[in-house]
Amino acid sequence: MSEKQTYTVPAGQELRVEVAMDSKTTLTLESGEAEVFGAELAPARTYNLTGLHKIAVFSFRGATVSLTPEPAVVYVAEETTGMTYLNLHVALEQQRAKAATIPSLTGPRILVAGGGDAGKTTLCRTLLNYAVRAGKVPLYVDLDPAEGSVTVPGTLTATAIPEIIGPEEGFAALTAGSDAPTRPIVYHYGTSQIHDNADLYAMILEKLAKVVNARVSQDPQVKEAGIVVDTAGAGDAKGIDTVAKAVEAFEIETVLVLGNERLYSTLVSRFKSSTKAIHIVKLPKAGGAVDRDEAFRRASQREKIRSYFYGFNTAELAPCHVQINWARAQVYRLSEASIAPDSALPIGGERQVTGPRVVRVESPDILLHTLLAIVPDEGQKDHPKLDDQGKPIVLDEMDAIAALGSPVIGFACVHEVDLKGKWFTALAPMDNIPSVRMVSSVFRWVEE
Ligand SMILES: Nc1ncnc2c1ncn2[C@@H]1O[C@H](COP(=O)(O)OP(=O)(O)OP(=O)(O)O)[C@@H](O)[C@H]1O
Ligand SMILES: [Mg+2]
């Protein structure tokens, strides 16, 4: 059906909408008031939704909305999280009011945890939007490398949120491009699973926490508004342990656990004798949260990479193709040993703890279409250092690991490789790449 369909959303209820892959629909608020994950809908504006949108249009007072054409899944749900999330926001605002007047206090430090597809990112987004609507600038910390909410997948990020995260574009519109409203702090991890390279993950989590904790104490807006930490699904003991480490590193005071009893009770017993009070709050798994399959996740990751280079709207940004001389480049990859999944180990085999490992990429041909993180090249200003025969000196592995411990400057995606291995061309947001030291990720992206 391609006609407009109109739906009534009674007060306290929500219209859940899932658009099928490769199709589109438009959403319009016809009357009343409604919001999508904390972002108010403007009356009569048309919102474009694609196959990557699974949303809920919630109304506190009742609304009428229309969809054209009718999407694959659409229904009104009576049981919603709307009032619970609003009440949480009200409690957080009380903490913010205290932090604004008492110098020794900071705003709320919240971490959201739970299993996969429990509604964690949606809860973070809703609380961030409510904070922005209350005139605050909270800091969003994304510890889920599969999500890559604010830049590209394979990253851990912290981003001050100065504007509403909109229903159509999500975080992408806030961060893409040099004149974006906010600049995230980004660490490169390179894969989507937190256990793929556990040592590297632990290292950059600690680094990011230091930067975030410093920001909370130095930036008055963030000190008042606080931080909201999003995590990867904690499905097993290692995942739970990672959540517990994040609680400690980010000095979290309130953990919101979405529908995961094991995680909840493990955290309660782990922190019951902690010197600082940590509130662990159990919330039901969000009823509307939709399980997303691998195909959806891959499509969503590809779209994140596309919008990093081109902006949320097609051709909003103008990335450049930059040719890089291989002799000058310093490209590293995470070594096979460190990214092998547990399932690749022999039966009964134990993963050896070796620390993060990277190796130099010897030839550019394996990099075609690979997403590369550009990392700082400090201390190597007159690069490349050449040996007696005029060949560049290969940097020490430790040097590359140290580079992984620095925030990323930007990303590039390999577009073309010279068969003789002399150069490669990469799509990059800027034409003068400030560093030729790069670390590859497992993500590949081909321009269509
Ligand atoms: N109330 C709702 N109605 C409709 N869709 C929803 C609702 N809440 C969440 N969703 C959708 O369900 C999906 C899963 O939600 P979300 O991304 O918040 O889960 P998550 O716990 O962060 O998942 P992951 O473990 O993959 O990070 C998303 O596509 C989200 O847009
Ligand atoms: Mg998530």
TrEMBL record:
Gene Ontology cellular component annotations, sorted alphabetically: mRNA cleavage factor complex
The keyword Metal-binding appears for this protein: no
Annotated binding of ATP, by residue: E14, K54, D117, A118, G119, K120, T121, T122
Domain Clp1 C-terminal: 317-447
Pfam families the UniProt entry points to: Clp1 (PF06807), CLP1_N (PF16573), CLP1_P (PF16575)
Biological process terms in GO annotation: mRNA 3'-end processing; tRNA splicing, via endonucleolytic cleavage and ligation
SUPFAM superfamilies: P-loop containing nucleoside triphosphate hydrolases
Major subcellular location class: nucleus
Domain Clp1 N-terminal residue range list: 9-99
Domain Clp1 P-loop: 114-311
Localisation per UniProt entry: Nucleus
Subunit structure as annotated in this protein's UniProt entry: Component of a pre-mRNA cleavage factor complex. Interacts directly with PCF11.
Protein task: Required for endonucleolytic cleavage during polyadenylation-dependent pre-mRNA 3'-end formation.
Protein name from the UniProt record: Polynucleotide 5'-hydroxyl-kinase GRC3
Species the sequence originates in: Piptocephalis cylindrospora
